Amino acid sequence: MMLIVYIVLGVVALAIIAIFIRFFGLWFRALLSGAHITIGRLIGMWIRRVNSRVIVDSRIMLTKAGIATDSDLLETHFLASGDVISVSKALVAANKANIPLDFKQAAAIDLAGRDVLDAVKTSVNPKVIDCPNPEKGRHTIDAVAKDGIQLRARARVTVRANIERLVGGATEETIIARVGEGIVTTIGSAETYKNVLENPDNISKTVLQKGLDAGTAFEILSIDIADVDVGENIGAKLQADQAEADKRRFQAVAEQRRAAARAREQEMSALVEENRAKVVLAEAEIPKAISGAFDKGNLGIMDYYKMRNIQADTDMRKSIGGEGEDDDGGREE
After folding, report:
1. pLDDT at position 90, please?
2. Calpha distance 72→21 (Å, rounded)
3. What pLDDT does residue 15 have?
4. Helix and strand totals (H; E) in the chain
5. Taking Cα atoms as reference points, which of 205, 129, 204, 200 lies closest to residue 170?
6. Which of 69, 143, 149, 322 is the least crowded, having the fewest Cβ atoms under 10 Å away?
7. Residue 224, Cα to own-chain centre: how many angstroms?
8. If DSSP codes are grouped into helix, strand and coil, which group holds residue 22?
9. pLDDT beneath 70, residues of the chain
């Protein structure tokens, strides 16, 4: 029994020594840095699966910067899948730049998916955003003045991060969209493209007055028009397209009228043929009438021959009259 007791005590002692050796370096480094952490807390971090090295390094960093932070807050942020090192660096940078930022606010920004360290850097050193973003495949913002001339502009927006609005504030894409909309509106309001080319700074002044940074995570410091180029004559092109459309419409109307005229002509031709058929039918009744007159005694043979002579004389006169007109026409020519 005594042997078993000695063995158990030996195992426990070895375990204590192993744990002490494992965490002694971190404990001693924290102790020398003035950010004391007990061995028991380090063991508790190991049991809770918290990276004790990250916590110790962050605590040392904050302590050296004069920022008092509880280890529980660091552990909680680590367990929430936050970047403890980035948050600690952001707190140190904000403290050096006299930017009001506490740990809870920095942790909230980090958990919201924003790079809190980059936000602090942007607050200290403003960055420039290209409008439009060349990475999206567009290099200019195209707009048309009132005279129909297209202008292609490119702007550079200088922004500074607004720490208080990082959580819930709009991103750079919103800034780019709003600035682009302002440029299009300003150019579209110009009477002629020459006014824009003469004073391109009027664009930036007009856009800045719109307060485009409202509700965003940034504060717009300046909007500079980097380049303005003359594009196509959109007005003339639209007029040409409209004229071509009107031409096609008028051609369609004319073709419709032509088709209606052709149909009417065919109807009249059919009507003429119908009347001719009626005349032929009427002429066919004449011999029947003459025959009936002979039968009834209303017409004698001499009367019939006299009528035939009159008809022959009439046909001869018509024939002679037609030849005379042809001869006269030839002489006139």
Report:
1. 87
2. 24
3. 63
4. 12, 4
5. 129
6. 322
7. 23
8. helix
9. 5-6, 8-23, 298-299, 301, 322-333
Q: How many CA within 13 A on the CB side of residue 145?
A: 21
End-to-end CA distance of the chain: 156
DSSP string, 255-291: HHHHHHHHHHHHHHHHHHHHHHHHHHHHHHHHHHHHH
Other Cβ atoms closer than 10 A to 113: 7
pTM: 0.58
Q: Which pair of structure tokens corresponds to residue 267?
A: 């109807």
Domain 127-233 matching CATH 3.30.479.30: the answer reads yes
Helix axes 2-32, 52-64, angle to 10 degrees: 30
Q: Among candidates 161, 156, 160, 151, which has minimal Cα distance to 204? A: 156
As a whole number of angstroms, the distance between CA 99 and CA 96 comes to: 8
Give me the helices (H) in 97-164, please.
103-111, 116-124
Token digits of residue 114: 């924003």
Nearest to 88 by CA among 112, 66, 106: 106
With CA atoms as reference, report the closest residue to 143 among 204, 213, 196: 196
Q: How many CA atoms lie within 13 A of 318 on its CB side?
A: 6
* Cα angle: 225, vertex 176, 213; to 5 degrees: 95
Query: Which two tokens mark 124?
Result: 């200290």
Beta strands in 124-265 (DSSP E): 127-131, 141-144, 149-161, 218-233
Q: How far apart are CA 42 and CA 33, in angstroms?
A: 16
Distance CA 119, CA 115 (A): 6
Residue holding tokens 């390094």? Answer: 57
Is-contact 143 184, C-beta < 8 A? yes
Domain boundaries, given as residue ranges, for the chain: 2-97, 127-233
Q: What is the pLDDT of residue 322?
A: 67
In terms of phi and psi (left: phi > 0; alpha: psi -120 to 50; beta: otherwise), the region of 261 is alpha
CA-nearest of 99, 75, 74, 108 to 88 is: 74
Question: How does pLDDT run across 133-180, given as a tens digit for each residue?
Answer: 888 878 888 888 888 888 888 888 888 888 877 777 778 888 888 888
